[in-house]
Every structure is written in structure tokens, then in C-alpha cells.
Fold these 4 entries.
Entry 1:
Amino acid sequence: MELILKSNNQESLAKIITLAKKLNVVIERKDSDLQDTTKDEIKNRILNFKAKGTSSFGDASRWEKDQREDRHLPII
């Protein structure tokens, strides 16, 4: 089982690490703080994404026109 803890409170982390050591739990510490530059890079990658091929959904504007066209409604 894997447990991931994220906290900015160093005091709480120290207590958790101490307890984990007493319980003979393996600890792997990774400092993966997302900084503003990283967030901006991710945002730019998402905004600048370009598909490599054509859409598998077909022509969206044609579908919308078909959906919105007038239909003959039976009068009961």
C-alpha cells in the first residue's frame, strides 16, 4: 500500500516521520511543490494543445445544424 501526504507544516511532517520510523514504515520523501512557473507551463501546454489528426466526431457544425433543423411534428 502507498500513502501520499502533502503538507506545508514542517512540524506536523516531523511528527508523522517520527511515528512512521517507530512503526518500521518505509519513507520516501519527494519534494514536489508546484511553483507558479510550473503551473504556467502546464496551463500553456493545455491551451496550446493541437490535435495531430482530424476529429473522430466528424463535422461539429453540420451536426449542430442537423439537430436544430425544423422537424415535422405530427398533430394528434
Note: The chain has a mean pLDDT of 80.
Entry 2:
Amino acid sequence: MPNDHLTTAPPGDADGLTGRIASGPDALLRAEVLEPQLRFETDALLPWYVQVEKVLLLEYRRLGLLDGAQVGAIADILDRVTPAAVAEEAAESMSDIAFTLERHVARRLDAVPPAWHVDRSRNDLQATAQSMQGRARLLECADALLVFGRTAHRLAGRGAGLVMPGYTHMQPAQVISPGFYFAALADQVLHTLERLESVYRTADASPLGAGAMAGQELDWDRDRMAALLGFAEVRTHALRAVAQRDWALEACAEFSLLGVALSRFVTDLMTWGGAGYGFIDLPDQWSGISSAMPQKKNFPVLERIRARTAHLGAAYAAVSAGQRSTPYSNSVEVSKEAGAGVPGAFDTLGSVLRLFGAVLENLRFREDRMREACESEYLGGFTLANLLTLRAGVPWRTAQVAAGRYIVRAVARGLPPAEPDGALLDAVLAAEGYAADDAAGLLAEAMSVPGGLRAKRSDGSASPDSVRALLAGQDVAFGALEERWRRRRTAVEAAAAEVDRLLAGPEGRREW
């Protein structure tokens, strides 16, 4: 819960934390910087700081620096830590979460073990807690993407056998289906989920044991600590471990890329729902009205979604600009200020996926309008050129010219695509020195709207069979990704359970 009860304290004695300066932070510095940071960290990062402290206890025990009773006493206090309890110590701990947590525990011990927190730095502690938080948010993000992707996949299945115009350069181009179109959206989500696996691997490397920047002086078992925190590996180089926040950069980069793609899909829906198209509709509860024009039914939710995708690009710009031109070492600029917008990026993506997913769930295709739009356009021009080459032996480029000339003349005569004029095509071909045995039959086949889908035979095409094959493959891919992301979550949860087991068992000797 938010820590609104944090109070601003006047500059005070800092001797309990350091001998280097004698005064605590100025009240303005606390109010503008330190206390907002502490509120965020206690709300978002405290569980991960506590988990790191527990693993450190086990490591101090392994090193022989703390005994079982000391480990048990500290672990018991850590188990009862809450944001509100930590906030009580904040004013006297320079509003720093590491100092505050340390003081909170120390004040509740009968005696503070001399070796507790020996050879420790806030730098790798902070980097580790942030990586654990990033890892958790990436797991949430993957879950949201899987739900959204499955929604797009179901919608594609509903529309695989329908027809609609496909557009290039904003002009009607070829017959496609809504199923074909929304299978592309599902494929885009699969692509992002696969790329996020690389981001997760970045976040899944433990900085703990890197110290301030140059490593630590005790023989810490970094592999063991990483495993107990659920990390897959150790971020080996000590300087790199504390200097970078690559997971934040990479996550926001992927969100920005996905936002670009999603905005394009939403733009199409905005177009298809507008006047002159009317291909889709949404129920009233997902629609808006005009205050002045009672005839209008608007879809402002689509505008909201598209606008929010812009925030994803802005978040990446902010985190990258905040890190560039900084020294390659630990710094507040990189570890805190540059990443200030990262939690918001995760929140924004979640909102976009929930809203867009709800739109897809409620979307209704206006099949008659889509079919009429296909029937009113000469969408079979490409097919006609192919047939002239394959059936009448007309060279391909000449066939393109002949098909184009036929369409121009048919339109000038007011002929719809469904009324082929074989004699007109014969005349066009004769002018080029060619002839077709059944010009009217070729035209009827080429301009058939259902035939426009069936004519496509290559893998990944708009034909109903191809779309269904695409969807079947996507279903398998979603299942595999769901399982991989489930295993990652299970590994993190199992590590946390193992830490608690060790603290409660013979190694921790929590029997004081």
C-alpha cells in the first residue's frame, strides 16, 4: 500500500550511518527526491530486498560468520517486515531503503551480530532487487501478452472463412479474410513473446556479490546466492553487474516496438469502423457519442489505445536518454532516475493489452459490408494477369498491361466485376497480338470474390486452408511459450520456498 504517512524530518545526526558527514539530508532534498523514492521502493521493491537479505543470512551462515540462532532471529524479523513498519525508521535512515531496513532489523534484535552486513554494499543489493522486480514484471507482461495473443487468435479463427478487401497504399488491393488479418496480429504477439525471452534472460542474471563495483572481499558463493534467488545465472563481471540496467532498456525497447505494431493494427480498426467502410462494429458499452451530432456512434476506445502506444515509445526514449553519456559505473542517475518511467511502461502496456483485448473480444464483423466492398472493386486483376499467362500463353508483363486495360475500359463502361465482358477482353488481347479460348470464363474465375481467397495456395497466404494451418501452428506456439513462461515463474517461486525451508531447517537453526 502507498506510504502516505512518511514524514519529512529536519536535517539530523547521520553519525549512526556514516562518519563521513555529520548531517542528514536537507528537508527539500528529502521531500523532492528521497521520500518519493523510498515510497516507490517500499511499495515495489521491499519484498525483493527482504528476499535478498534472507539469502545473505544463509551465506553468512555458510561462511561461519553468523550462527543458527542469529540467523533465525534476523529471519524472524524479516518475515514480519511491512512497508508501514519500514517507514517508521525512514526519517532516521536518510530515507534510504537499505539503511532503513537495516535499522529496522537492528532495533529489534537483543544484540546485533558484529558480522551482519560485513563486506556489503548497497550497489549490488539495489541492482539485485531491481532485477528481481523487473523479472516479476516481465512474467506479468508475458501472461498479459499470452492472454491477448490468444484473444487475437480466437478472433482470427472466427473470420477465416469471411471475405474483406485487403489494402495497399490505402487502396483496395486483393481479397483477404478477417481471419488472415488477425492471424497477423497473433503472429506479432508471438514474435514479441519470443523476443521477451531474451529480455528475461538479461534480468535473470544475478548481480549479488558484485559489491560496490570491484567485487567483494569475502569468499561469497555467488552461484549459490543466485540460485536461491531464482536466477538462472550470475552477472559475472562485477562492474557490469552494478553499472548497467540493460533489462530496463531492453524491456522498454521491446514495448516500444510492440507499440508501433499495435498502433498500426488499431489504425486499421479505426478506418474499418469509419464512414465509407463500416466493416466492424462494437457494442454500445464500448462506443461513444457526439455531444452535438446525434447521428454519430464513435469508437474513442480505439483512439485511447493508439495514443497509449505512444507512451511506450516515450518510455524507451526516456530510459535510454537517461543512461547515455553517464560514466560506466554505479550511479543514482542510471539506477534510479533513468528508470523512473520503467514501472509506468509496464503499467501502460498492461492497459493497452487489456483494452485492446476487450475490443477484440467484443468486435463484430459486418459480413455484408465487407463482401459488398469486395464485389464492388476489381480485386481480381492480379489473378486475371496470372490466368492470361498460364492459360493463354500471354507473357507476364503483357498480361499485366492487358488486365489493366480491360479494367480501365470496363469501369468506363460502368461494368461491375461480376459482369465479365469476354468480347472486351478479346479486343484488348487482340491489340497485343494474343487471344484466349474462353475470355469470359477467365474473367469470371478471376473476379470471383470467394475465388480470390481460394486462388492463393502458398503457405501463409489468405486462403482459408492456409489460414487454418497458420492458426494451428500458432496454437502450438502459444502452448510452448505458455509452458516456458510457466517454468520460469515456477523456478522463482521454488527458489523462494527453498530459502524459507533452509532458514527454518537445520542449516538456519531457527530454534532460538
Note: Confidence is low (pLDDT under 50) at residues 1-13.
Entry 3:
Amino acid sequence: MMSQSGTAASRSLFSLAEFRATWLAELISYFGDQLARVALAILVFDRTNSAALTGMTYALTYVPSVVGALTLSHIADKRPRRGVIMLMDGSRAAVVGVMTIPGVPLPYLCLLVSGMSFLGGPYKAAQLALLREILTAEQYPVGMSIRQVTTQAAQIGGFACGGLISAALTPQVCLAFNSATFAASFTLYLYGVKSRPAPDSKGESGSILNGMNVLWREPRRRAIFLTTLLGFFYVAPEAVAAPYVSSLGYEKVWVGVLLASTGVGAVIGLWAFLRFVPVRRHAVYLPVVCFTTGIPLIAVSLPVGGIYLAMFSVALSNALWCIQVVISVSALAELLPEHKRAQGMGIASAMNLTSQGFGTGAAGILSQLHSPVFALAFMGAASVLAALWPGLLWIRAQEPAPQPVA
């Protein structure tokens, strides 16, 4: 069973006013982001009737955030993090507000989408770093688990509601709601989170190279950084869900069912992990989840089970992936120096998003050249091999240093 201290930490989080404010702010803004993604896809396709342009616009909701995280995350180490978050929220509310104007030319719309995404990079870095200031070292993994469950639920609900609202009303209504969620998040941080001074940056450079060096030069940080690259393999179910369902001869509605099962798996898996594994033991399981996250994807190649086996497999894989994220982010928050925490976490997040982007493309190519089943099984098997480096590095870094001979 979970340790008494872990149980107490879990129960106490929502009694903290600042945690409630940050949790609610993330819930509503992330839900709004998913509404906006669906609305933009529908809006662009209605205007252009081009699947390629629709896909490119959708990619703009992700890709610029990588650049923002790499180039601006260090600001949250040099300025009060609450202020950085509020600045990003206010700016994004204004940007998305402009997008709601009917008839905005497509090039300007793409520019606005890129700007919104770009600002999300430093926002997330500042948010993760500020959360560690609000929570203790033992509470932080619990808070991260709650965040993962929240974002999974918001993603499922946001995608579903985005399609319904866009169809019943207009895509601009979804965008207006998204702008309002950023404004609400700004208000929650303004009144629900106290201001804290900026960390002492000691005059260090905020360059990307300096941030990478901080992550790479210490073995445990390096191991965690390498785990972020494993998203290249784990994202395969999202990339091939549609062709996989089609290959089985099922209706398109099953694509949504298959993708929704990943969220259900994450909620159940995170709850079980938090319930039965003491917080002080979380880091021990990092190599285990690294080695096993891709294995369920291999099972899809079995000649039994069909769509139901696939639903179970992707749910289990995503649950293990989310657990891996909770362990990695929680450990990294403790291992990074306070004055480099936001930049370090921002760069790690950017690498994770980048690896997922490339992984989506690789899985799609494998699916096209061979089959969706082959793509899932191959990416799952390859992830086990790729996980050897960070997993073994983490294990070695935990071993006690040899004592000098007297």
C-alpha cells in the first residue's frame, strides 16, 4: 500500500489554495486549447478544402512551442515565474481574440496560430518550475500525476466538444472560448497564486547551449533527458490509429474510440501507481517503465483480439508512458538547480515534443510502406532497445560510489 506520508500528500494537495488555482487554470486552458485545435482544422479545411493545408495549420499549434521553449524558457529563471505565466496568458488571450474575427486572411491566421503556440513553450516551463515552489518534494510527484490525469481528460473532452460546437455553431465560437480560458487562467494566477521573487540566476547565460549543458553534464539529468526522446516511439498509436482501424474494416468512429482508450488507460494507470507505490520509491521504477512502455504495442501483431486487443495495448502503453513522465519530471525538478529549473525543464519538454513530431512521421511512413500493425509492433520493439541507454545510465547513477581502500 502507499506510504502514510504519500497518502497525506495526496489528500492535502487540494487543500492548498495555490495548487487549486494552478490546477483549475491548467484544466480550463488545456481544454480550450483542444477546442481551438479542432476549430482551426475545421476552419482551414472549410476555406481551402485542402487536407495538406489543414494538417500544416494543425502542426502550427505544436511546432512553434518547441522553439518558444528552447529560446525563452530561461526567462522564467530570471523573472518571477508567476509574472511570466500571466504575461503569456494575457498575450495568448489577445492573439486568439484576434483569430475570432471573421475573414482573417489565411496567412495571418497561420501567423497568429504560430504566435499562440510559441508563447506556450515558456509558459509550460514557468508553470512546471512554479509548481515545484508551491509543492514540497514529496507532494510534487502527486501533483504531476494529477496534472497528467487532468490533461488526458481535458484532451478527450476538448476534442469531442470542439467538433460538436464547431458543427452546431461556428469554429469562431471555439476560438472565443479558448481566448476566454486564457483570460480566466490569468485571473486565477493573479488572485490565487502569490508572487515570489525570481530565482538567483547568478548572472549565468540563458543560451540554449548552456541549458543543454546543465542537463547533460550530470548522469541522472542526462538519463532523464534521454527518456524524453523515447516519445519518438510511444506516439505511434496516435499516428496510425486511422489507417489501423481502416485496415480492420471498422467504421471511422472506432478511431476516436481507440484514441480515447489511451486516455482511459492513463487515468487508471496513474491512479494505481499513485495508490500502491510510495512516492519515495517512484524513482526506482524509472528504468522499469522505460523498458516496458513499448512492449504492449508489440502485442498488436498477435493474430487474435483485433481492435479490442489494440485498445487494451495502447491503453496500457500510454499508462506506462504517463507514469514515466511523472517520474521523470518529478526527479528532474529535484535534480536541477533552482536558478536553472525552468530552462532545464523547458528544454526537456521541447525535446519530447520534437521527438513525438518526428515519431509521428516515422510511424506514418512505416504504416504506408508495410502496414499499421507492423508500424506499431516495430516502434514498440525499437523503444525497448532505445530505452537501454537511459535505463542503464539511471541504474548506474544510483549505485553508491566505491569506497577508497584504506
Note: Residues 1-7 have pLDDT under 50 and may be disordered.
Entry 4:
Amino acid sequence: MAVPQKKEAPEASVLQEKPTASAAKAGDHDRIVMASRKADGSMDQVAPEFIGDKDVAIAAAKEQLGQQAASAVDTAARGVSSAQEGAGSSEPDPDVQALKDAQDEAVAGAESQAEREVNKLHQGLGD
């Protein structure tokens, strides 16, 4: 008795022979709850789309960008302050206070950027 030969179906390919405009428009993108950041603060994802709870995404982005902005101010100012040897005082160091003020300003700007990014790119709870 002869066993019939099984015809193999052609494998479905992920690649398109002729890419369409709609495929290019949809394209790859990253669905994220919290962004990865480059050193300059920009997002390190491909066409990011925030999913999940919007308030959590905003809080995470604010914290992340705030810390990065404060660190950038600190790095830029490193070595600028002058230490006075032997001149102890109970008064706050003006250089340290100026640095703290600059960090607070950078954090506020970063937090508003974070909120704008999440508001622009949030796509709901991922349902």
C-alpha cells in the first residue's frame, strides 16, 4: 500500500515581497510603561506608545527625567564651587544653594516635559 506524499505548504514569511505604505505607517514601535532614556533625556524607543495607567506613566516619567535633569546640572557645575579652607560657618554655602536652585529648576522643566510626552503618546490601558 502506497503512502500518499504530503505536500508541504509554503512557509509564511514575515517579510513582505513588496512593502506597502500602510505597512510602513504601522511599522515597528515599542509599547512601554516607562521609557528608557538616552544621555540627553530623549526616549530610546522606536515610536514609543505608553500603555497602562496614565498617572503611573506620568509619575515614572517625572521621576526619571527629574533625576536625570538634576544630575545633568550637578555634572555641569562640578568643580565650579570654591571651598574656603578653615572658614566654617553655619550659613548655607551660596554655591551649594545656587546649585540646588538650578537643579530644582531643571527638575521642574523635566517634569513638565515628562507629562507632555506621556499625554501625547499614551494609548490607554493596553486592552
Note: The helical segments are 21-26, 54-77, 94-121.
